[in-house]
Amino acid sequence: MLSGKIDHGSNVAAISGDGSCTVYMMENETGRGTMTCYQVLPGIDLVFNDFRMQSCVSEFRTEMDMLGIDYCRQGRIEWNFRHGACLYLGERDLQVGTREKHTGTFGFPLGYYQGITLAVYMEEACRTLSSSLGGLSIDLPGLRESFCHGGRTFIRRADEAIQPIFSQLYNVPGRLKQDYFKVKALELLLFLSTVDVPADGNERPYFPGKRVETVKAIMKFLAENLERRFTVDELSLRFMISPTALKECFKGVYGSPLHAYMRAYRMQAAAELLRQSGDSVATIAAKVGYDNASKFAAAFKAVIGAPPQAYRNFMSEWSEALPDGVDEARTNL
Question: pTM (2 decimals)?
């Protein structure tokens, strides 16, 4: 078994398990994350990750030679490297790398991350593929060298050929899980063996840590001043960062251009006010930076899918229809 050769860290606890599946949890002041791990083949684990937190510290260690294949289904994850740079994995992104750089701080810029990891422990996995499966032609050392030459981390958009391999893993009947996961793990490894990796091995830029800190400070400032509007040039002067660097890094950290992200952020804040306060629509519009109620209503419908008053009415009726205590539990999630 591999469990004795892996140290998940003092901040991770196994909370359940049945032999074929173990659920691990980590929790801190920013939220909670779970990792549901299945051993699909000797030396190959499939992990479903679900983090609802702002950041965490990974203490994961293993002396085994390892390859990690990560797919982001929703949200965003930030890798902080020792040389002070940050790299991001966003929705429908694929990452291939070793776990040599897995100890350290990870961030979740959107407050959540859901995805899948295929953990390949090279020595045992190679034995499994060469013997138990009749010599299946997957060259794991060659695959790792191709994607991770020199210890680099490879990230690319999961294209239409590979994306379904991951998405289908979320809709499997319980009685078929083990066999289905095994087939999909092998399919993924076979597919990656055919990928032509570019010479630089990475399609994503790294962002300097200090620039990322500045962009996060800008986001905090904007979130605390939703009633006001700021141009990129104004933010650039206030935080001493060039407009180009601000726009590029903001999109790198949060996954969307600043204007588009803040529009969605304002509408989510407005939706919360519509659910939880008795303020008029015009008052709420002003609180999120709109002095024109009609423009606010149009923006709200575009983002949320319904006009503000219709949304408020629906949420009020829905909450009243819930059994006692359920709405309170929903609010506190």
Answer: 0.85
